[in-house]
Amino acid sequence: MLHPEALQTLRSVFGYEAFKGHQEAIIQHICQGGDALVLMPTAAGKSLCYQLPALLLEGVGIVISPLIALMQDQVSALHQLGINAAFLNSTLTLEQVQTTENALLKGEIDLLYIAPERLVTAHTQWLLSQLKICLFAIDEAHCVSHWGHDFRADYLQLSILSQRFPNVPRIALTATADPRTRDEIINRLSLGSAKQFISSFDRPNIRYRIIEKQQSRQQLLSFIKHEHPKDSGIVYCLSRRKVEETTAWLVQQGFKALCYHAGLSHELRQHNQHQFLMEDSIIIVATIAFGMGIDKPNVRFVAHLDLPKSIEAYYQETGRAGRDGLPANAWLSYGLHDVMTLKQILASSNADEQHKRIELAKLDAMLALCETVHCRRQLLLNYFGEQREQACGNCDTCLQEVATWDGSLAAQQALSAIYRCGQRFGVIYLIAVLLGKTDERIQQNGHHLLTIFGIGQKLSEHQWRSVFRQLIARGLVVMDMERHGALRLDVSCRPVLRGEQSLILRQDNKASKNKVQRTQKLQNLADQDSELWEALRTKRRQLAEQQDVPPYIIFNDLTLYEMIEKRPTSSRQFANLTGVGERKLALYGDEFLSVIADFT
Ligand code: ADP
Ligand code: ZN
User: Fold this and answer.
1) Which of 7, 130, 159, 327 is at 20 to 30 A from 598, Cα to Cα?
2) Is residue 513 part of a domain?
3) CA 20 to ligand 1 centroid distance, Å
4) What is the DSSP code (8-state) at residue 305?
């Protein structure tokens, strides 16, 4: 049985009408004293799974979270809901720590956020022994795993919780889908008997789009101008230098853009990240150093100017878009040059051979995603072990059928060129041979005498690049970084080379790619109600500035959209909007109602 007050609290405190996904089952399980392992993708609503039980049950809920920088925001957001929450971490003064500890001892706190390294100190253990604790929530539980990318040694010590507090329910949460990580969480946190709640990892509101890189800056500019002129977004680049150059260029084009990479001072990084959270229309250009703990819910696009090194990285980075569940875009431009660069980085790294092989396989999977003619989401989810029978309808290949052509002959010609030239040359050289260019190097090597010299003049250089890319993505051809990107044949290419197997290829052309429709909800709004939208955003920004909190902590975009859609005229109607609980109604209802009234 669900706790009798669960639904009532969901509505009055959080302002949500109903539970999402597994939330209800998880909350019921925790309230009955069970342990739980919760795997949900970003934005599925993990935090409610421990916040609500902490309100329903007697005592304080302890939340272990690795990100000190985020605690302040998380706690501010709870205060906005009228929840007694606090945090303990190294940013507090001694006096602030005292105040919080006293409040805890008096039983005045419902939710306490704490960093793992602090939790295991003798003092905190003493403090906890004095408290009535209703649950432990271990957020970002994948940090306990060596296998994952965010390993934190402090997390290993969390195993003491099950020994010291055997009767307190524990709930571990993560957005990492990988089965190996899951097993490690269970082992290291002694969650063997915990009930597992595993959700689909799909992010249906994110629209995936991968285009062929041509003039990537211009392509990016056109994407942002047409689809996200006033939105916040993240642009990922591979190198620090490119980050800086791209930022400067976007600023020149009239956008508010800031950069973020590991080469900047700590202060500047903090400052830029803070600005990004605080403002509504801002672009951050970053290396992959940026991301952990970016909880900004209204990131409307994530653009990659360079190829991510694996599907895991791509999924994690694009996953920072659309946390509020509203339509968002994941946009990537990629070319053969990216593949070379990543392979070069890998080849020159100090990692052992086995590790390199794994990384190469991951890059190949990423390439296959780029070159697929099928639904991208299906491929992504299948990669993570989730079988999905139907195409999604919300990725570029679904929205616009990919034109294909019979590339068997071209493939045969490309493969023989590689072979005839001794498997010692890269794409540019091979294309020159196929096109019959009179190049000094070709003459010196005598390759102008080969039968395949000039055999490929029916295709343009651009089309040949596409052919080579697809041969590489399908594993028929291997790019050898020890030989400066020289191409050689893989045994699997034989049937194609001999003409025994036909090969259907993607047709890459410039025009078709940009026609993908804009994400619907935003489009409609931009046309009809943009003035009200701007007025609501201004009101939200003013309220946020008064309290020095990010705007989305007042209301997220979804609530603003509902204001436009439903045009509430009374407090009662306002209370029905998603995200409006009793406290926010009292604090902000009238302010927003009067803005809406001006437009009705
Ligand atoms: P996660 O931690 O899984 O990334 P959050 O807990 O931040 O996700 O929640 C994601 C979004 O979903 C937030 O905007 C939150 O307000 C919203 N949300 C959570 N639960 C519900 C619900 N039951 N109904 C409506 N919105 C919800
Ligand atoms: Zn699709």
Assistant:
1) 327
2) no
3) 8
4) S
Residue whose C-alpha is closest to residue 23's, from 3, 12, 13: 3
Q: Are residues 282 and 243 in the same domain?
A: yes
**Tokens 């439903």 identify what position?**
566
Q: How far apart are CA 92 and CA 199, in angstroms?
A: 36
299 CA → ligand 1 middle, Å: 15
Give the tokens for residue 534.
Answer: 């701007």
User: What's the half-sphere exposure (Cβ side, CA atoms, 13 Å) at 474?
Assistant: 19
The tens digit of pLDDT for each residue in 345-384 reads: 888 888 888 888 888 888 989 999 999 989 999 999 988 8
Least confidently predicted of 65-69, 370-374, 474-478: 65-69
Report every protein residue that has its C-beta within 5 angstroms of ion ligand 2. 375, 377, 391-392, 395, 398
Write b or e for each residue in 225-254: b if 16 or more Cβ atoms lie within 10 A of its Cβ, otherwise e: eebbeebbbbbbbbebebbbebbeebeeee
Query: In which order are the strands placed within the sheet that holds 111-114?
Result: 85-88, 111-114, 60-64, 133-138, 170-174, 36-39, 195-198
Q: Quick one: tokens of 35? A: 């342990």
| Biggest CA pair distance of the chain | 90
Question: Based on the domain organization, do 107 and 222 belong to the same domain?
Answer: no
Please choose, from the candidates 127, 143, 120, 148, the residue with its C-alpha nearest in 3D space to the C-alpha of residue 66. Answer: 143
Residue type, 34: G
Q: Does the beta carbon of 59 lie inside 6 Å of ligand 1?
A: no
Residue 263 and residue 219 in one domain: yes
- The order of strands in the sheet holding 299-304 is 206-212, 328-334, 299-304, 232-236, 283-286, 257-260
Domain total for the chain? 4
Name the E strands within 291-426. Answer: 299-304, 328-334, 404-406
Q: Where are the beta strands (DSSP E) in 225-312?
A: 232-236, 257-260, 283-286, 299-304
Q: What is the pTM of this model?
A: 0.87
The CA distance from 209 to 212, in Å, is 10
Q: Return the residue whose CA atom lies nearest to atom 2 of ligand 1.
A: 46
